[in-house]
Amino acid sequence: MKNKAGSFEKYENSPVFGSKETGTMFDAYVWKQNGRLRMDVSWRPRKALAVTFSDDGIHWEDPIVTLECDPSTGENNLNRNCVIPSPDGNGYLMWFTSQLWKDGEGRSWIGVARSDDGIHFERFSKTPVLVPERDHEKNSVMNPFVMYEGGKFRMWYAAGETYEPNVICYAESSDGIHWIKDARNPIFTCAPQNEYEQNRIGAVQILPEGDGYLMFYIGYRDVHTACICAARSKDGITNWHRVPENPLVTPTPDTWDEDSCYKPAVIKEENGIYHVWYNGRRKHEEYIGYAYGRIQEK
Fold first, then answer.
1. Domain spanning 3-293, CATH architecture
2. Which of the four pLDDT bands, split at 50, 70 and 90, describes residue 1?
3. pTM value?
4. Could you say which of 34, 67, 213, 239 would form a disulfide bridge with 49 (CB–CB 3.0 to 4.6 Å)?
5. By three-state DSSP, how is residue 228 classified?
């Protein structure tokens, strides 16, 4: 039996990763590494980043911590990361969200780390590579998605409030450490006319497709209710057009993700199927689920 909420089909035995034993696992990034699926994920009880591997996207190995919180940097939480092979062929690079929560107030900034084996990461520096500076960034920059393309690093990131961000922004770098924010930021904002994203937006993952880019993002009906959506752009920066299939994945009442569906991690197969891993929330419990579907060509 298939469980449909939104235009995509949900895997009926979700969640596929995380349990009461692990505690909350959230904001995953899934990619193919050496013929297997790799999931970089945030591990809330450990305030750390972790990795797990799978051969089928359903059955995942026990998590291994890849980077831990370092209070000496001013942070007391670590989450929302992206890992890619280093373009020079030497190891792996990680961009991550560092957070400070104090007296109910939060701040977020983005750091970078490196690993030889893709498991054990070390920070380049205790100094962030991206911090909130502009009005639309408010107290936080977070949830970096980075790709290396055309001889440069390209980063899409969320910005705004710390509990949940408000807008999507863009930056470029020649070395992955020193970033130049785009003067047109924010490059993507919510569309209040759409009930499913009338409050704010967040996440993202970008997939190059044909002569353009497909962005998967979180749409928030309100700060506590979220779903997964997608939009297209020729250059990945300007003139975004939402796909007609939106919303793709929405909460299913009386199930493990009845409150919100967050942070899509996406892989597209040659047959045109998009595989989406996302964190679903029911009250204070949050684990990783799986859904799949098609988006028509533009």
1. 5 Propeller (2.115)
2. very low
3. 0.96
4. 67
5. strand
